[in-house]
Amino acid sequence: MRGGCAENQADRDFCVRGKPCIDKIREAIEGHFFYSAIENSDCYGYITEKTYDRIEFNSIPIVMRRDIYEKNPSMPPSSQIFVDDFESSEEMAVFLRSLQSNKTAYMSYFKYRERYGVDEKFNVYWDALCAQLNDPNSTLRNSKKTIPGDVSETYMKCLTPHSFEKGNYTPENFANAPHHFVVAVANAKPEDLIKYKASYPYREILSYRLKPGRDFFEVFINETAHLMPISAYKKEGDVFYPVDATFHNRLWRNSKKLECLMGHPDMKGVEPKLLPKDLEWLAAFRDLCFEKAVIPFLAKRTLLGWRRQCALLPAAGGFDLNVFDEEFPDALIADEAKLATRRLRVEHTFGKRRSGTYEVHLTSMEPAARPFEILLNPMYNGNDGYNFETMITGEGDDAVLWDLEYPWFVKNFCTAALHGHIFHVPCDPYQLILANYGPNWDDIDDYKLKNARKLGPLNDRKWQRPNV
């Protein structure tokens, strides 16, 4: 401990007010794997200087609430540890110890430096504000807008951490701290909610819509629909509660519902290769991914079918899924026994896992099942501001490797309902659909991928895609 709270005089005099101290602070912090950057006030418009003023330090900051930083996207992604991702201090301590002993995982918190750099310091903007306020000709000084007498009031007089202690939650807080909630379902009546509240006095009870034939809940927060997978919950009587609090938190942050368009007529005379009930296989694999805290998302033909006509494309004989490379479920793909619990198996793997040329085909173990494949591809981050994946066509000596590039899009997912099943999709699906199928995507029957670039034959030699 350094500063005014330290026990000995030397540590109390570590920094003297009014004298430069940043080098001392940096040396002290970089001597540790982590440092506390806990805020003294929880505000959506406030991020503590303990975080932004030390972003160049070689240590990982620990902050209080994930949602505050995600609603103020001024800090690099995946660069901090959030206290509210954990159920207890013991759970967080176990995580920190494991991270400290895993160099690859630890260094992933600094991966943003390959793409981002610090351009301006915060104080530059205070200087600019002061200059404007002291300039008699400035539009800011002569505006009608109210300027607080004490600027610190804008971030000191809002929600303090104790406002979020157990028992103080309201339904409006649900999106901010979902892992503190037990959820009542089946359109619970007000009197039911009171009864459940008596059993769970420290948790907010909300009523979800749970309709037969659906594998998800639907809840409305401020008139916005959110979907959550039933598989992410345990059931206790009529009450559901999260299986994994941390992953549930992530699922909720990516739960906003997107609507499909129903704008493309059915293709009459085309015998569908897949039926809506076949989606049960894709949903089964989705749940296995959820068990590994992995979020797969719809891609290519499956994404187009959902967005354009709220259905599977009649000509599609398989399902297309992507998972970002850094969380690709390698352990699941290698676990035959686990896949078999959902009657799934790996049919083929193509390419090399870490070379940017990988593809997995899964299918059913049931002999009587309609033939289908789940085509699973890692989505990679390129070095030049774009995403890409590779695709393999053909088999054996005839296998050909293709490259598909996409404009860079934020790893921010929403949810989609497809024939009673919940799946994740990019919150801006048009970027992928336009790249895949061109500007006439809403009225085509030819599903040739416009952004597919042939790289060459896929053979036993080690393929290494550039920029991986």
From TrEMBL:
Pfam families: Glyco_transf_10
Tagged with keyword Transcription regulation: no
Protein name per the record: Fucosyltransferase
EC number: 2.4.1.-
InterPro entries linked: Glyco_tran_10_C, Glyco_trans_10, GT10-like_C_sf
Coiled-coil segments: none
GO cellular component: Golgi cisterna membrane; Golgi membrane
Protein localization: Golgi apparatus membrane; Golgi apparatus, Golgi stack membrane
Span of domain Fucosyltransferase C-terminal: 23-138
Pathway: Protein modification; protein glycosylation
Main localization, broad class: Golgi
UniProt keyword list: Glycosyltransferase, Golgi apparatus, Membrane, Transferase, Transmembrane
Membrane topology field: Single-pass type II membrane protein
PANTHER family according to UniProt: ALPHA-(1,3)-FUCOSYLTRANSFERASE C-RELATED
Keyword field contains Protein biosynthesis: no
Protein family per UniProt: Belongs to the glycosyltransferase 10 family.
MF annotations from Gene Ontology: fucosyltransferase activity
Enzyme class: transferase
Annotated source species: Mesorhabditis spiculigera
